[in-house]
């Protein structure tokens, strides 16, 4: 019997004292609560009569009976409370049981993982560290259980007998299902590191690549090797796309299609991920069925704005980790400095990197290979300021060194690609093709095929061409103009010699090109700093090219010097085969140009004080006493132009003690070096049609502008020395003049006739139609029709055919033929014809390209 059944709260022990009755009632209620809790914990339920009695007593003590509206609600709530407390007690017991089960499973999981690691990695586990604790996983060993299958498949399918660089480690990490960042030089074999594991695992590997030509090239190679690889791009036909989607859907559903092989690799562009929700949905179904084995992002540096080739569509790939959290992601790049790497990890949602030779269990495994490639021979060729002479030199170089080899000539603009291809064919009967963004996809595909077959020997292209192209026998890469950055130049030149054989990487350089690139890069993030790195490389006549690359990437990109070490040589050893290593020392000379620098900076200071603006070209002429001897000046408040003062004459004797006694070419190189060393600066000025770069004083200019001539001549203050080439002997004038008329008559579309008006400096060929767009416009812009491929059926001559213009030009010392203060035109010319600069007579022949190259500054 329960206590509540044995008494009446109103007459308990016959007490008439209301206070005592209240105390007793509270005591009884406390007892009832304790009893309820005990019974709930033991799995019992409360007797409804106790609840009813309690509520009855409370109701009467509060002055209302069982017929009061609150009474029913109280009874309902109390019943609900009892049920919930009972349910909570049941859940607590279940939680206790599940927790015990979880602990048991966790213990067994750790044991299973340890045993699996032993079986998988074997000797791949690192040795114990200094504290006796085991270190991480070393993926760069042969002891993994799948290694035998990898090697057999590699030889059987790709015909490759052994791994090179860090390929083995990357393949092992791939087979282990790890997130990976792999940085390998162009031609290092990055593609194998995901293509080979794709053949060894179930499901499809998704490869995201920026350019159609790269995708086409990969598909071509894989199909030739018998690998089922497909692409879904804008160039894929509707019927083919439907077939591919159907096969992928069948794979996701676990069904085989009779007569169809399983797709192992599917190539897409970033736009496919960003704009096709249907395709993303298909990928999610593949991932759910565990048939999306990995996601590969090629040219992954494009994801970062800090990289040299940022592409906005790549940033949309940040959704991959969110959509596919359990699918391994692999990022590949040829150049990925630390800042770009960190940005890449953040955008793609990857964990911090761990070493591929000492990896923990959950980090992103990082691999890198030495960036130095000993089979590439770098050199800088002096580029003549006359376009015809440039092509004459380039043609002669190709015919002398690689008359029957495949090569690439990179040009700055679309117009230049057309012009260079035509000139190479006309001058040397070289079979050339053209690639730029205006070519159709079919033309690109055709050029790609003919270039690989050898029908086309030399492709003249804008910078996107060749990105990832797997053509091993490219024996030379020429740059008609400098690249925007040394990063870009390294990657572009690295498309030579991918088969490991000796190849040449040659830059045709002149300081005039610096202004063109400067106007293009001034608004880009770190654009000027990157360009200056490229200019420093081009200007240097003494330091080994390998060491220049190592210093640049180590300091500007903070890469380890070990990236430039090989088994044969250390990072600080000279390569011994670049132009600066092989150049005889008697071909260069060191001269003191401190007084000339003082003169130049004094002139710039005077021009600025007078409200004038001068480009580098104008300055090069003014300091030598040419160019009309004056400059245009304006006046206005706080830099706002209001009034044109007109042309102001420059009195060199008063300003700086006379004209600068250096040759034109020497001054041009000196101006670039002063810009690099912060003695000079540039100021952009945008107009409706162009961006002009004007010279100004740099932060170090006061070292010279604050002192007078006497101090400079007395040797007080900073001293500047310049390394010049020793001037070569000039060829006889009479001999050149005999050749000129004959050569001119043999060229199509020769120079303009006499009487044509001279083209203004701002209309120089190299400044028109600049193809600044580094976006991945469908890559393979090439032309295989009669207008784009030159000399398909013609043989090559045994000796270069040298040609000269039929016109003589004015003294190069007196007037510039081309304005190298080039400005980037916002509206490129729409003319499809190659414009040629009208000639001007001259009295003697100059010898550009034989004088100064590089400057060294010592304080």
UniProtKB/TrEMBL annotation:
It is an enzyme of class 5 (isomerase). It catalyses: ATP + H2O = ADP + phosphate + H(+); Couples ATP hydrolysis with the unwinding of duplex DNA by translocating in the 3'-5' direction. Residues 34-64, 753-763 have a biased composition (Polar residues). Residues 393-542 form the Helicase C-terminal domain. It is found in: Nucleus. Its main location: nucleus. Residues 764-775, 782-795, 805-817 have a biased composition (Acidic residues). Residues 74-101 form a coiled coil. Residues 171-354 form the Helicase ATP-binding domain. Pfam families: DEAD, Helicase_C, RecQ_Zn_bind. Belongs to the helicase family. RecQ subfamily. This is ATP-dependent DNA helicase. It comes from Moniliophthora roreri (strain MCA 2997).
């Amino acid at each position: 019997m329960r206590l509540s059944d044995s008494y009446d709260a109103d007459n308990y022990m016959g007490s008439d004292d209301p206070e005592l009755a209240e105390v007793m009632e509270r005591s009884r209620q406390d007892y009832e609560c304790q009893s309820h809790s005990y019974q709930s914990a033991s799995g019992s339920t409360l007797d409804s009569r106790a609840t009813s009695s309690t509520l009855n007593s409370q109701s009467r003590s509060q002055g209302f009976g069982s017929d009061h509206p609150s009474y029913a609600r109280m009874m309902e709530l109390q019943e609900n409370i009892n049920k919930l407390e009972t349910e909570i007690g049941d859940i607590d017991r279940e939680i206790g049981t599940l927790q015990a089960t979880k602990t048991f499973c966790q213990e067994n999981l750790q044991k299973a993982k340890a045993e699996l690691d032993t079986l998988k990695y074997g000797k791949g586990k690192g040795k114990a560290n200094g504290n006796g604790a085991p270190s991480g996983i070393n993926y760069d060993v042969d002891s993994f259980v799948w290694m035998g299958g990898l090697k057999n498949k590699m030889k059987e399918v790709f015909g490759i007998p052994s791994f090179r660089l860090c390929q083995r480690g990357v393949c092992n990490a791939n087979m282990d299902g790890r997130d990976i960042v792999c940085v390998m030089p162009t031609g290092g074999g990055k593609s194998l590191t995901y293509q080979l594991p794709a053949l060894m695992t179930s499901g499809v590997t998704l490869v995201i690549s920026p350019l159609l030509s790269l995708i086409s090239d990969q598909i071509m190679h894989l199909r030739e090797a018998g690998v089922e690889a497909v692409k879904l791009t804008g160039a894929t036909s509707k019927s083919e796309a439907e077939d591919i989607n159907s096969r992928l859907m069948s794979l996701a559903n676990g069904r085989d299609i009779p007569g169809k092989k399983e797709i192992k690799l599917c190539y897409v562009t970033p736009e496919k991920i960003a704009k096709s929700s249907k395709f993303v949905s298909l990928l999610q179904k593949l991932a759910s069925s565990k048939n999306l084995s990995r996601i590969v992002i090629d040219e992954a540096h494009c994801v970062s704005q800090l990289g040299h080739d940022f592409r906005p569509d790549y940033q949309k790939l940040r959704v991959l980790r969110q959509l596919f959290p359990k699918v391994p992601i692999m990022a590949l790049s040829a150049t990925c400095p630390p800042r770009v790497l960190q940005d890449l990890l953040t955008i793609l949602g990857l964990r911090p990197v761990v070493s591929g030779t000492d990896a923990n269990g959950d980090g992103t495994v990082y691999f890198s290979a030495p960036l130095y490639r000993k089979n590439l021979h770098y050199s800088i060729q002096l580029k003549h300021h006359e376009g015809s002479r440039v092509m004459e030199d380039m043609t002669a170089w190709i015919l002398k060194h690689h008359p029957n080899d495949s090569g690439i000539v990179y040009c700055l603009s679309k117009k230049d690609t057309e012009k260079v291809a035509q000139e190479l064919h006309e001058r040397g009967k070289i079979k050339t093709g053209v690639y730029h963004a205006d070519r159709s996809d079919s033309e690109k595909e055709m050029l790609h095929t003919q270039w690989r077959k050898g029908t086309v020997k030399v492709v003249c292209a804008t910078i996107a061409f060749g990105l990832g192209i797997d053509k091993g026998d490219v024996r030379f890469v020429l740059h008609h103009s400098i690249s925007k950055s040394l990063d870009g130049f390294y990657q572009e030149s690295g498309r030579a010699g991918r088969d490991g054989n000796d190849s040449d990487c040659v830059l045709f350089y002149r300081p005039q090109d610096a202004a063109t690139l400067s106007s293009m890069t001034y608004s880009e993030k770190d654009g000027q700093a990157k360009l200056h790195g490229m200019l420093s490389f081009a200007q240097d006549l003494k330091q080994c090219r390998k060491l220049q690359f190592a210093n640049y990437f180590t300091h500007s990109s903070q890469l380890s010097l070990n990236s430039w070490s090989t088994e044969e040589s250390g990072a600080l050893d000279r390569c011994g085969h670049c132009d600066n290593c092989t150049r005889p020392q008697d071909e260069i000379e060191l001269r003191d140009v401190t007084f000339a620098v003082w003169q130049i900076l004094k002139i710039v200071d005077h021009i600025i004080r007078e409200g004038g603006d001068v480009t580098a070209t104008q300055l090069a002429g003014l300091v030598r006493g040419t160019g009309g001897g004056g400059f245009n000046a304006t006046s206005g408040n706080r830099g706002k132009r209001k009034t044109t003062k007109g042309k102001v004459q420059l009195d060199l004797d008063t300003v700086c003690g006379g004209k600068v006694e250096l040759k034109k070419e020497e001054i041009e190189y000196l101006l670039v070096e002063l810009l690099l060393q912060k003695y000079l600066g540039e100021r952009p000025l945008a107009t409706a049609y162009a961006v002009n770069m004007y010279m100004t004083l740099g932060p170090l200019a006061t070292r010279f502008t604050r002192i007078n001539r006497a101090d400079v001549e007395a040797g007080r203050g900073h001293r500047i020395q310049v390394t010049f080439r020793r001037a070569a002997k000039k060829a006889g004038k009479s001999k050149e003049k005999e050749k000129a008329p004959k050569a001119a008559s043999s060229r199509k579309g020769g120079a303009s006739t006499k009487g044509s008006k001279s083209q203004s400096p701002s209309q120089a060929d190299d400044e028109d139609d600049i193809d600044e767009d580094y976006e991945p416009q469908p890559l393979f812009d090439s032309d295989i029709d009669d207008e784009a491929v030159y000399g398909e059926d013609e043989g090559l001559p045994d000796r270069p055919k040298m040609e000269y213009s039929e016109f003589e030009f004015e003294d190069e010392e007196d007037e510039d033929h081309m304005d190298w203060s080039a400005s980037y035109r916002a509206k490129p010319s729409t003319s499809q014809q190659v414009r040629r600069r009208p000639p001007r007579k001259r009295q003697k022949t100059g010898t550009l390209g034989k004088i100064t190259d590089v400057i060294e500054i010592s304080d």
